[in-house]
Amino acid sequence: MRAMLLLPRFLPAAVVAATFVACSPDGTSPPATAPASQTRPDSAALHRAAQQFRVHYNSPVNLDSTSFYYVPVSVVPQEKADRSRVLSSSFDSYDEQSDGIEGTCYNVLFFQKETGQQHALLPHGRFTVQEIDAAPEPGARWPYVFYRIIKADTNHDGSQDTDDASALFVSDRSGRHVRQLTPDDAQLGNRLILPKTSLLLVQVRPDTNHDGQFTHADGPYWLRFNLRDLRTPPVRQPDPALTEAMQQQMLLRQSRVK
Question: Out of 29, 38, 129, 236, which residue is the most buried by the measure of CB atoms under 10 Å away?
Fold first, then answer.
């Protein structure tokens, strides 16, 4: 599998730890108790799933000069292998190389090279991990791994896929301190780290007309993050005042087009 390694080295551990706060991968706190029907799996359904699917551990990916490597964990149909489309490190184009993730990825395992210690990125398999971005980027050296994750079947068509809302998640290079960066009700667009800066710009497209789809009718906007401190809320660009001014200016111009 082609390694998409974002950063070749760690910042000091104290700096890395300061950029994250403890939160669940959902972005919410788990309930104290859950109904019994939600805690006990349906054994018949699990048996049927075992007859139709298998768990697949994809090729290990080395995390450059760090002491960790990761293994995407996916599900494939028993009768055939199905390779997913793995996005490039900039989140803006598809790369269907033969060494991509096989099947649909639902979690990622991280392994410590020397000790063999291991842990999962997510505590459950409810999300679809659409992309793992650990590739080096020119001019940017930040100790993170980025993930494009689909949390739910937002258009209610029975599957979690590219037509659903997606969010940008981040972890440190050991696969810990997972944090959601973009909102639930939007689809993740392009992502850009400005060279020689600490600025991360992320495009998101909300479902502004509430039709359950993400199309050109839904205007995207950009969120600006400071990679030195991801605890700081992002800044929307342009801000509401400038957005309104541009809306009036552009529509006025178009109203004069004959």
Answer: 129
Q: Contact, 133 vs 101, CB < 8 A?
A: no
Q: What is the pTM of this model?
A: 0.75
- Quick check: 108 and 120 in contact, CB under 8 A? yes
pLDDT number for residue 69 = 93
Classify the C-alpha dihedral 228-234-238-242 as positive or negative: negative
* Inter-residue contact 66 to 110 (CB < 8 Å): no
Q: How confident is the model at residue 168 (pLDDT cuts 50, 70, 90)?
A: very high
Q: By the 8 A CB rule, do 49 and 69 touch?
A: no
- Please, are residues 238 and 219 in contact by the beta-carbon 8 Å criterion? no
Spatial contact of 107 and 122, defined as CB atoms under 8 Å apart? yes
Query: Is the Cβ–Cβ distance between 226 and 142 less than 8 Å?
Result: no
